[in-house]
């Protein structure tokens, strides 16, 4: 028997769809759009959708209870799912405790993550674990930067001077971890 014949006798993977949109930062794909795109992805791959989970209006950065995220993890732990389809890793989580819980469940129950805007992640492999963890850290940093920028804008108002370390009282405003150095004022240019 060849590989194609053997593959057709295998039952289709059981797919869960997960969509999330935070309350503040996302202007991208709505939850219904994410679910529709994930459904099409499952159809293309020949997977059977067995569950849909969504957390609309919940940040994945804050360590708050997202009910359908919890329900998703519990379904994985009950061995009801073979693959979780998401738009991107940062839709699943943007904080390390939730990432650790989802990674542990996926590894223990041999569940893969399938990013419909990218590829599949097997978190039991060094590459899958690295990529998933790094994407979570990237998303965590991005959210923290946005939050800090929003706080600074609210604190200083439109006419105040920037309230970041080193920006006033003779400080240069440039730090070892600063992504963009402070530009010189027009008077010194």
Can you give me a brief rundown of this structure?
With 189 residues, this protein is of the alpha/beta class. It has one domain: Resolvase, N-terminal catalytic domain (Rossmann fold). The chain contains six helices and five strands; from the N terminus they run αβαβαβααββα.
Describe this protein with a few key phrases.
189 residues, alpha/beta, Rossmann fold, 5-stranded mixed sheet, 6 helices, 5 strands, 43% helix, 14% strand, disordered C terminus
Write the layout of secondary structure elements.
Layout: H1 3-9, E1 14-21, H2 31-45, E2 48-56, H3 67-77, E3 83-86, H4 89-92, H5 96-108, E4 112-115, E5 120-121, H6 126-156
Parallel strand pairs: 1-2, 1-3, 3-4
Antiparallel strand pairs: 4-5
Task: Describe this protein's structure.
With 189 residues, this protein is α/β, with parallel strands linked by helices. It has one domain: 3-Layer(aba) Sandwich (Rossmann fold), CATH 3.40.50. 43% of the residues lie in helices and 14% in strands. It has 6 helices and 5 strands, in the order H-E-H-E-H-E-H-H-E-E-H. It has a 5-stranded mixed sheet with strand order 2-1-3-4-5, with helices on both faces. It is globular and about 55 Å long.
